[in-house]
User: Fold this.
Amino acid sequence: MIVAPQRLSFTEPLPLQGGAQLPAYELVYETYGTLSPARDNAVLICHALNASHHVAGHYTDAHGQPLPKSEGWWHNMVGPGKPVDTNRFFVIGVNNIGSCFGSTGPTHLNPATGQPWGADFPVVTVEDWVNAQARLLDALGIERLAAVMGGSLGGMQALSWTLQYPQRVRHAVIIASAPNLTAENIAFNEVARRAIVTDPDFHGGDYLRHGTKPRRGLRIARMIGHITYLSDDVMNEKFGRRLRPLVEAMRDGDVETAERLAYRYTTQEVEFEIESYLRYQGDKFSEYFDANTYLLITRALDYFDPARAYDGDLSAALARARADFLLVSFSTDWRFSPARSREIVKALLDNRRCVSYCEIDAPHGHDAFLLDDARYHAAVRAYFQHRVAAACRAQE
Amino acid sequence: MIVAPQRLSFTEPLPLQGGAQLPAYELVYETYGTLSPARDNAVLICHALNASHHVAGHYTDAHGQPLPKSEGWWHNMVGPGKPVDTNRFFVIGVNNIGSCFGSTGPTHLNPATGQPWGADFPVVTVEDWVNAQARLLDALGIERLAAVMGGSLGGMQALSWTLQYPQRVRHAVIIASAPNLTAENIAFNEVARRAIVTDPDFHGGDYLRHGTKPRRGLRIARMIGHITYLSDDVMNEKFGRRLRPLVEAMRDGDVETAERLAYRYTTQEVEFEIESYLRYQGDKFSEYFDANTYLLITRALDYFDPARAYDGDLSAALARARADFLLVSFSTDWRFSPARSREIVKALLDNRRCVSYCEIDAPHGHDAFLLDDARYHAAVRAYFQHRVAAACRAQE
Assistant:
């Protein structure tokens, strides 16, 4: 599947939950499949921290050939014949405001100053993103979604859709998500933010004007993130206590060296394979991700809490929802544990919503929502085939 | 109980596991209680990352008055009438080499250069610490310990004592510890180290010569540490999603303000109480802790792995032990989980050692080993009264 991003400009300012408003802005998005004549087969995919509108398919080079490694972040989930089947559904991936992957964000110019927004970019929330997404649907002529779907922070957007626009969502698919962050979740976000903000290259958020980037802080932020995305078990299986040079020697078939190799006794150099992995992930991330975007998106996570206006009563908060729901959680996900998904399930059942819930016994921790897992994909496939598609047919 | 630290100089170089040797060095230690004429009631307490020889009792001011807040780090465990009763036992607290609390470490002068050791301080391991502690016992005329005891990294030292000096340990009390670190444990250590080492004020470890300190890195390291010391549950209970200004307003009885207060929508300022707590802990730590010491001690944690020389067979590794054992773990400790303590228990039972094991249902996570918990303290008290004291009497 060959795809290309599209771009839409919005001239009406977007009022934000924080009190500010975003003047003229742009949204970058992609679509896969064909919108039905009845315009009733649209599925909106919401992205999490480190993702974008590029959900599925490949980009092409100048000769129209698929670019290697250009597949979208949910390529295994969305596409022709995939669990979210683009032969049946018209799927929309949209990049959120505040991102560094195309839609208006802190690296763009602030029309009021002619300088990059930087730290002055207004705080955006899950609710703001949903409002912006709703305007995109207006522009595309889609009144009602067959489904809204997302994992992690994307799941929060899907949940918020059912509360902000209850009449516009037929189904919500919420994967590895939570009704809000715990203190520990916020704590991890805060450490990552402090690492970024106290990096001398951050310059109060105006690093672009200083021709630099807070790479050290971004590296630390990403390393922390990676630890929380994986389960303890999968880390032990993938890396264990293996030494880095040992792994290299064995890869070269040099068993003699491998056997001779032992601790090198160093405090600053890489000793264990897990260290090398984290450093690599941190380095890579620090090259392409924007620091102000990291602050904005982690804050959107922190702030999301639909029960807050109801004194913490999630059942009361979800009373507005009209959609049917599929929730999926993963047994080893300690960032957004199954217990958090079950809170949402319970609150929906309290409101007599129609809810399917799958708790998948998977070893991969939070990352599982992005990985191939036969039972997980089968559950999503079945839900889309039997429930979401049926709802479209019923309207036909 | 009024106490004062003592200091002993050792002129014989200490050979280190990493291949280097430490020339003349000093150990700072404290003792509580009285050594019996038979010299058979000595209990050695080993410290963890952020602790020292000052286990119990108070220091005094110039007028001999107890200094407020000067009590030792295990004050609730060690003292007259406490679980480790200094009316009965002669308790020794010793500061480890590489520390920044008195014993020879990276802030001290390297005799070869006349400059602070800094990053040139040799890597030290749990085994090296135990060897240094054994020399201290030699100097104090103690051939055999009634018990060696420690929590977390201190528990690793206690376990290593039973392997390095099996004849010199009657009982080992190992609390909230593990036979080695998991990949996830190492990963958290590595992120903390990267935060320190990449702080521009680190200067490759020679920050003292530059008249500075890598405070930013130390703050991040401490914040990460604090998250892993606490359980998710206790964090939710202590902090939850409470907002910082809200807490302040309510503390002042200003309910009207508290009710008015809501999210302030800020990416860089404190919003949640948990953020304020972590920042405070990080700031405090960065003022008194030495960065090179942090690197050394986390590496000692990473390297400890007695089963390593036995192809990972912990039962084979522990075959040398001759002591009796008490192990304690805490249900919500996800840093050193009960499963890790049970690995040690199983390996000891495989060797037909006499082992008592308590898994305490406590909400506080890893921190529980430092806190008052009636069942935990009762178990340690009973073990010392009935088992450790009996062993002393049997020798009398």
